[in-house]
Amino acid sequence: MAKAVAKKKKSKGGKKAARLKVQPVRWLRRWALRAVLAVAAVFLLLVLLYSVVNPPITHTIWAEQRRLGEVDRMWVPLEEISPELARSVVAAEDAQFCRHWGFDARAIQAAIEAGGSRGGSTISQQVVKNVFLWQGRSWPRKVLETLLTPAVEIVWSKRRILEVYLNVAEMDEGVFGAEAAARKYFGVGPDELSARQAALIAAVLPNPKERSARKPSNFVQRRARQIQDGAATIRADGRADCFED
């Protein structure tokens, strides 16, 4: 009888110890889930907020400001930016901008086939990266970008996505947005850019720290001519309709 009681007590003690071991794991899981939900809520709140409020700063602008001491940037609405620049940027960076929901499958496939030597990101993805995340090719950033891009596409209009892009993209070292780039490169307002000037700025976008629209290399000049032709094409075939008045 005594042995049976002792055995029963030992069994209960073992189960209690097992429960004590499991509880911290459950606690960690619970708080990890809460943390993930909290982060998701913050991101979704920012997506909603920035659909009507202009982002005050981005991680890239902040980092460049710390590195250089100051940056050149002034926000302007899309209505005050030359349509030539809007079309040129779309032709250069994402010609299917009006026809996709955030991802361009063909561009991604081409990037994979090129072995990563060319980018496959859409303007929508670049806006998510520039506004909400950070630069670099880490997997955590790419996962967050993939999750946030559809949310931005659902909440924001195509005009809003392009407007934000044209105001946060780096277009020369420490120069962010169409207004600052137009003044620095050509001494005009962003609404006064010609088709050629707009194409030169768009040609700089993939590598603004090494390319110049004011003193374009032979490559940049050739690329600008291609972009100018592409801008005319997307206007003619309707691929600019989603952001044009």
Account of the 3D structure:
The chain is an all-alpha fold and 245 residues long. It has 10 helices and 3 strands; from the N terminus they run ααβαααααββααα. It has helices at residues 2-49, 59-68, 83-93, 105-113, 123-132, 139-155, 158-168, 178-186, 195-204, 218-236, and strands at residues 72-73, 170-172, 175-176. The longest helix is centred in the first third of the chain and has 48 residues, at 2-49. It is globular, with a radius of gyration of 25 Å. The termini are far apart.
Structure summary:
This protein is mainly α and 245 residues long.
Sequence-ordered SSE layout with sheet pairings:
Elements: H1 2-49, H2 59-68, E1 72-73, H3 83-93, H4 105-113, H5 123-132, H6 139-155, H7 158-168, E2 170-172, E3 175-176, H8 178-186, H9 195-204, H10 218-236
Helix pairs in contact: 1-6, 3-9, 3-10, 5-6, 5-7, 9-10
Helical residue percent band: 55-70%
Order of helices and strands: HHEHHHHHEEHHH
Cross-sheet strand order for the largest sheet: 1-3-2
- The number of helices is 10
What is the gyration radius calculated from CA atoms? 25 Å
Mean pLDDT: 88
The end-to-end span amounts to: 91 Å
Question: How many strands?
Answer: 3
Which features characterize this protein?
disordered N terminus, mainly alpha, three-stranded mixed beta sheet, 245 residues
